[in-house]
Amino acid sequence: MSALQILALLSGVAGLGCSIAATVSDEWKATSRASSVITVTWVLQGLWNNCAGNAIGAWHCRPHHTVFQLEGYIQACRGLMIAAVSLGFFGTIFALVGMKCTKIGGTEKTKARIACFGGANFILSGLCSLSACSLYAHRITSEFFDPMFVAQKYELGAALFIGWAGSVLCVLGGGILCMSVCDTCSKSHRQTSYIYRGSASRVSAHPRGQAMSVSLRPPPEYNSSSRTQHFDKNAYV
Predict the structure, then answer these.
(1) In sequence order, what DSSP letters do the residues of 3-65 get, joined into one string?
(2) Most buried of 20, 53, 103, 119, CB within 10 angstroms?
(3) In sequence order, what are the residues at sequence separation of 6 or more whose Cβ sits closer than 8 angstroms to the Cβ of residue 19?
(4) Whole-number Å distance between alpha carbons of 91 and 229
């Protein structure tokens, strides 16, 4: 079970690394070389910068001017990727604390809850990264295949594929971690029920337990006739 949790942690950490690499990358969309002009061979755009390169290998990047002039989908992708990185970071910490092979976290039940919380963070991180990359890719493809769109058309950049790979790794690691915790909780529940049944059988085998199992009957009714008969038998003794 510890090996399974280590595998889940490695998968989540790898997914977190891919999410960070995709967030800081400037290649979310790129122009194809066939459609570029003569002086600029290709143009790359990311969440934070716009970059242009020519045939001799010269690059020039500049950040986006202001947040308020950005398009809505870019701002949404920024927020989702920042949330993905933050959730993946906290998921890594909670997974380390909740693993069975670590010495911190408290009791086994408490560690299982912490590990489950870490797995949930990994899953949410993967979903945020998947949503951001899918939203950005949908915008690129809709503009590329729109015949009425006359501006510069772009293709999918490498950062989108890195983000998709990171989201899959995060969801996979979080799912494995939650499954390992559920298996641990089920085993502890079975052990607890076995101990309880064993103790109950030992108590029932004790002689006092047999005496306690005898049903108690209500006392006989006390009336005046029985009292009279009792004193009549012992009147002359």
Answers:
(1) HHHHHHHHHHHHHHHHHHHHHH-S-SEE--TTSS-SS--EEEE-SSEEEEE-TT--EEEEE-S
(2) 119
(3) 81, 84, 85, 88, 125, 129, 163, 166, 167, 170
(4) 85
Q: Global pTM?
A: 0.73
Distance CA 84, CA 32 (A): 29
171 against 237, higher pLDDT: 171
Distances (CA, A) of 152 to 158, 189, 228: 19, 61, 118
Asked if pLDDT for residue 176 goes beyond 80, the answer is yes
8 A C-beta contact, residue 179 and residue 120: no
Residues linked to residue 190 through DSSP beta bridges, in sequence order = none
Beta-carbon contacts of 184 under 8 Å, excluding residues fewer than 6 positions away, are 1, 100, 108, 112
Say if CB 177 and CB 2 are below 8 A apart: no
CA distance 227 to 237: 16
- Residue type for 200, please? A
Under DSSP, the state recorded for 195 is H
Of the candidates 3, 2, 14, 12, the one whose C-alpha atom is nearest the C-alpha of residue 117 is: 12
